[in-house]
Write a structure and sequence with these properties.
Butyryl-CoA Dehydrogenase, subunit A, domain 3; Butyryl-Coa Dehydrogenase, subunit A, domain 1; 11 helices; alpha+beta; 10 strands; 4-stranded antiparallel sheet; binds flavin-adenine dinucleotide; single chain; Butyryl-CoA Dehydrogenase, subunit A, domain 2
Length: about 375
């Protein structure tokens, strides 16, 4: 399908596909096996100048938005869902600054992110507060010109590797969700430490760690927006970043489809290529429809968000949920088409299935997304009455 991309968007797509094909694909299995963070590939992202596709030009970026972020995430994830996450999770950590940072904060942090000199991360989840983010216990207590952060964030993507963390903490517990605030925390701030790197099912090249704050002194200039805005910062960030998760899922699904089509020509049984069997053809057709429908929904949602439309939580949740469910189905079907060979790790397809799973879980599970979609529908329905 023709998505009427601009020349610049096509350039981003082609460049990211080239990096995925030439630089990521050949090393993806090794990074996955070793569970190693892909610093060599991050350098390639920086040299290719793709780290700031969604950052305004005045801060050193390319001036794009959610669509450019999604196009890049899709293509890089085609190469490897784990490696591409160094880029995509930096987007998640950067959106709070883009959306709520003042000029001084943007000028201080965005140029290094855009140049690929620094990675970012976003930290809201805690051991007792996953889907129920309102249950976070990390506190930020005001003390003169500073806030003192205490608490532990769990499963933070890019944790320990990123230099810049956007963190949601409670400044006033008595106000419940209205008592949360968002902060920018530099990695080298005394009192910041990290847990061990998690050993994961998929996206194994990505680093996932606890981020621990122990009497960590944060200058008040690092507060994003104002006190009490923490959950709004988080929710608006997710509205902008979920199409990126959807695009990761899409890239993984597209790769699974490409591998399955290729293999179905090559593999012969009953004296024929398995692609001649209708049972296989129908699976491939269903996979292709899921992939294309995901892309159409993601690009439309991204365009709507970039246009400045107001109520985008529903479309953002829709594209994340649809594309990640599709990726899980498409990668599982690709495994089926490969038969027993894929069970042996020499083919990349089992990794695609492992990598796809996380897209149904992080940045809000798909159950939580369905809740977001349903409550928007109900609100819209009531408004029409
Ligand atoms: C690899 C990885 C990377 C991550 N990266 C980050 C990161 O960078 N930053 C960050 O802050 N967090 C991150 N997370 C955390 C992630 O966002 C959470 O895991 C996710 O929000 C779900 O929380 P939970 O795992 O505690 O599941 P739970 O909230 O305990 O949910 C368990 C199950 O119950 C379901 N459930 C819960 N509540 C409801 C409900 N109301 N209705 C219906 N079903 C419900 C869920 O859908 C799920 O199926 C990461 C997690 C992983 C695994």
């Amino acid at each position: 399908m023709d998505y009427l991309l601009t020349e610049e968007q096509q350039m981003i797509r082609d460049l990211c596909r080239q990096i995925a094909e030439e630089k990521i694909k050949p090393v993806a299995a090794e990074y996955d096996e070793r569970g190693e963070f892909p610093w060599d590939i991050v350098k390639i992202f920086a040299e290719a100048d793709i780290c700031g596709v969604y950052i305004p030009e005045e801060y050193g970026g390319m001036g794009g938005g959610v669509l450019e972020m999604a196009i890049a995430a899709e293509e890089l994830s085609w190469g490897c869902g784990g490696i591409s996450l160094a880029f995509a999770a930096t987007g998640l950590g950067t959106y709070p600054i883009l959306l709520y940072g003042n000029d001084a904060q943007k000028s201080k942090y965005l140029p290094d992110i855009a140049a690929g000199k620094k990675l970012a991360a976003f930290a809201i989840t805690e051991a007792e507060a996953g889907s129920d983010a309102g249950g976070i216990k990390t506190t930020a207590q005001k003390n003169g010109d500073h806030y003192i952060l205490n608490g532990t964030k769990q499963w933070i993507t890019n944790g320990g590797e990123a230099e810049i963390y956007t963190v949601i903490a409670m400044t006033d517990r008595s106000k419940g969700p209205r008592g949360a605030s968002a902060f920018i925390v530099d990695k080298n701030t005394p009192g910041v430490s990290f847990g061990k790197k998690e050993n994961k099912l998929g996206i194994r090249a990505s680093a996932t760690r606890e981020v621990i704050f122990t009497d960590c002194k944060i200058p008040k200039e690092n507060l994003l927006g104002r006190e009490g805005l923490g959950f709004i910062v988080a929710m608006k960030t997710f509205d902008h970043s979920r199409p990126g998760v959807a695009a990761q899922a899409l890239g993984i699904a597209q790769r699974a489809l490409d591998e399955a089509v290729k293999y179905s020509h090559e593999r012969r049984q009953f004296n024929s290529a398995i692609s001649s069997f209708q049972g296989i053809q129908f699976m491939l057709a269903d996979m292709a429809m899921q992939v294309e429908a995901s892309r159409a929904l993601i690009y439309s949602a991204a365009r709507m968000i970039d246009s400045g439309a107001k109520n985008v939580a529903k479309v953002s949740a829709m594209c994340k949920t649809f594309a990640s469910d599709a990726a899980m189905k498409v990668t599982t079907d690709a495994v089926q088409i490969f038969g027993g060979y894929v069970y042996m790790k020499e083919y990349p397809v089992e990794k695609l299935m492992r990598d796809a799973k996380i897209t149904q879980i992080y940045e809000g599970t798909n159950q939580i997304q369905r809740g977001v979609i349903a409550s928007a529908l109900i609100k819209e329905g009531l408004a029409k009455k």
